[in-house]
Amino acid sequence: MKRAYTNIPEGQMHYRFEGEGEPILLLHMAVASSDEFSRVKHFLSPKYCAIALDFLGAGDSDPSPYEYKVLDHARTVISFMDSLKIKKAIIVGHLLGGHIAAEVAINWPERVDRLILAGPGSFEESGTTNVDKPNDFIKQVEIKADGSHLLEWWRRASLLGDYFLDILEERAIEYVKAGPRGEEAHWTGTSYNVMPRLPLITCPTLVLDATYYLFHYQAKTVKSLIPNSKLTTIENGPMYLDRAMPKEFAEAIINFLSASAE
Amino acid sequence: MKRAYTDIPEGQMHYRFEGEGEPVLLLHMAVASSDEFTRVMHFLSKRYRAIALDCLGFGDSDPAPREYQIIDHARTVISFMDSLGIKKANIVGQFFGAEIAVELAVNWPERVNKLVLAGAEFWEDSQAVDLKEPTNFTTTVEIKPDGSHLLEWWRRACLWGDYPLEILEERFVEYVKAGPRGEEAHWAGGAYNSKHRLPLITRPTLILDATGFPLHSRSPVVQRLIPNSKLTSIENGPMYCDRAMPKEYAGAILDFLS
User: Fold this and answer.
1) Superfamily of domain A2-125+184-259, CATH level 4
2) pTM
3) Predicted ipTM?
């Protein structure tokens, strides 16, 4: 795996890439980074050119010039593809990344070959109560002289399941890198409703679900709203599915891509 | 300022760059990164091509394949210069970076134009007592399930004076990025003694001192050991002088280079 930067109008975008062949572009969840796909890429790269970017304001990309919405991030994905001269790609989006991927597919259908939405769903539905204290992980964290903000970031990194320490540390680093503006990503996610947008997706789409995703209970509804779609559910898959079960995550993608190949 | 990666035999090295002209290569202190020079580069870039790299294991560079000593890091700087096609550069090193810079100038004098050593003081046995609890910032920090390692990194970031919160957060990010292996940089520095290496430097050298550097009082000794050298002290300059007083720091470098 290699890391690199490319220039878009807003500044520099950082990305990780591995393998050769048809490009698969991987879009990360809120307050995360391209790092979340490092294990998954290892399984995709024998057959594909796997590319994971950091959204503006996340990981090692430049900050966004103002609070970006889902559509703004989707536009930066197109700028990113332009800068790397990628005409068309398979796009995989995880949680917030899935919403951004959906907007890329709806607004620039000619740039998207096939779409994989992992864990899509909407806070607008009645399911908000599924999360313990939902507002408790999206409030702004200010930097404090006693370092207490670090424990708050660590708490948020540890909030969504039991993971190995190396995964928690990776998540904590993502919180630290995103800094006090990091939660803008969650605000972007909660102010967006993917449901009415789903019927506008025209390319073949896989809804990649896991039994412990926040929006697991919405997966069938999501699938029914996307015209040309399939649903795969990974049993016992946690929120950080790509990090904790990278082989299963990658295999679901590869199986879908081989089955939907012309 | 832009960021980029380049390939050396051990993997990818990350660097920041700004400006055009004669290259000035900046080498960071222990458990830090190229980020420490971001403000300084802003001043240098008006006249020079300022380039700051992350040593292997720090910032966004790949980890070192094993525990690297000062000479190993110096070799990676040569690999870095090769990869960017830089034949010769002015080299600025801060603390740990200064030790690497000394070895560059001693072993590869043909690659070094002028040398700036910030905090190049060496340790005498009797000097160790100059620091409060000197062993207390170089032990390995293991990652703990309760996140307490983050507070220990924060404590270490805050150990060297009063700085605005943004500087402390930058230092902390550097600790986090370096991770549990980060202290290898302090160990490499501790295992190295520049005393017998300084007289071997042949390049024109500036000893860039600040009155708040831990071994400030030793800087005239360092200066006397280097044949063709000058000494400049920044009044009230703290340990993180490049971050806290970038204009003065860059000014001293620019005066010396011209």
Assistant:
1) Alpha/Beta hydrolase fold, catalytic domain (3.40.50.1820)
2) 0.92
3) 0.88
